[in-house]
TrEMBL record:
This is IS30 family transposase. One of its GO terms (biological process) is transposition. SUPFAM superfamilies: Ribonuclease H-like. GO terms for molecular function: nucleic acid binding; transposase activity. The lineage of its organism: Bacteria, Pseudomonadati, Bacteroidota, Flavobacteriia, Flavobacteriales. Signal peptide: none annotated. It holds the Pfam family rve. The keyword Acetylation does not apply.
Length: 333
């Protein structure tokens, strides 16, 4: 049966921009978007494979004369909807998260529901200049918070007695069993400052760890301090890359009772939850900035904000909601 052709929408073009900016090929982008390679190739050819800007490409695609009023009356003409959209954009929610949240919060009020594409049009085409500049800065797809990931420096790995991810139980991969975490560091300007990140795979709940440096002892103690606050049922394993900051993994396991599994070298896709979360965190902590200026209190504020943000993958629930449910489900009353 012949596949029905549908034009690329704005959300897809934003994904193309994001993935192309990371250095992915047209073929790889096509697979991730579920599109034919020729569709992506044709789209990128329009810019001669140079800088691709989603909103510019989309405005060219749909006639600007018909797009002028798109979204204006729907959002700007409804104060309650307008306030809700602007409020949550300022909280760094994506248009898709806002759209899904509106449907969940106002299931029987069509006037309080709008598509994520309408929200994008509202931001880029219809908001007043000062508000537009502010909201565009808040959008998580903002280009300047991203950079090519394939330029990551090669690290000299000196970790003994590592347990390979190949030995990790299958239950971890499935996400049904809570208490399995992924960890990493966000690196600041000139590799001189760091923030530790721990993400629970089932709930996507994130913990931000304040670090003075990336020495193995410093990272271990800081991670232990945060993990010790969790109930035992939420401390099963930690999957990490080959960073030398995890050289004291055996001591971490002894203290927390959590097995530490190491991914294969240069395989960030083996920690997908953490990689995705680090991308979200770059909105708050842009690359090339000094991370040491952020206090513990500020890290906890960002942690709270991110954990309260609804996720499509969690059926429009927030990580903190799911995390609490998982704990209550496992603790007998």
């Amino acid at each position: 049966m012949k596949t029905k052709f549908t034009r690329l929408n704005l959300a897809e073009r934003i994904q193309i921009e994001k993935l192309f900016d990371k250095g992915l090929s047209a073929s790889a982008i096509a697979v991730l978007l579920g599109r034919h390679k020729s569709t992506i190739t044709r789209e990128l050819k329009k810019t001669h494979y140079k800088t691709y800007l989603a909103i510019n490409a989309h405005i060219r695609s749909v006639k600007i004369c018909s797009a002028k009023n798109y979204g204006r009356s729907k959002i700007s003409g409804n104060k309650k909807l307008y306030d809700y959209v602007v409020k949550h954009l300022r909280k760094r929610w994506s248009p898709e998260q806002i759209s899904l949240s509106l449907k969940k919060k106002f299931p029987n009020q069509k006037h309080m529901q709008t598509s994520h594409e309408t929200i994008y049009y509202f931001v880029y085409l219809h908001s007043k200049k000062s508000l537009k500049e502010e909201l565009i800065k808040q959008l998580r797809q903002q280009r300047k918070t991203r950079g090519s990931r394939h330029t990551k420096a090669v690290r000299d790995v000196k970790i003994t007695d590592r347990i390979s991810i190949d030995e990790r139980p299958e239950e971890v991969k499935g996400r049904q069993i809570p208490g399995h975490w992924e960890g990493d560091l966000i690196v600041g300007k000139e590799h001189g400052s760091y923030i530790g990140t721990l993400v629970e795979r089932s709930s996507r709940y994130v913990i931000l760890v304040h670090l003075q440096n990336k020495e193995a002892a410093t990272v271990r103690k800081a991670f232990e301090q945060e993990l010790a606050k969790l109930p035992k049922i939420m401390r099963k394993s930690l999957t990490y890359d080959n960073g030398t900051e995890m050289a004291q993994h055996k001591l971490l396991t002894k203290t927390t009772k959590m097995k530490v599994y190491f991914t294969h070298p240069y395989s960030p896709w083996e920690r997908p939850t953490n990689e995705n979360t680090n991308g979200l965190l770059r909105d708050y902590f842009p690359k090339g900035t000094d991370l040491s200026v952020h206090s513990k209190a500020h890290l906890k504020k960002v942690q709270k904000e991110l954990n309260e943000r609804p996720r499509k993958v969690l059926d429009v629930r927030s990580p903190i909601e799911v995390f609490k449910e998982l704990i209550l489900d496992k603790i007998p009353l």
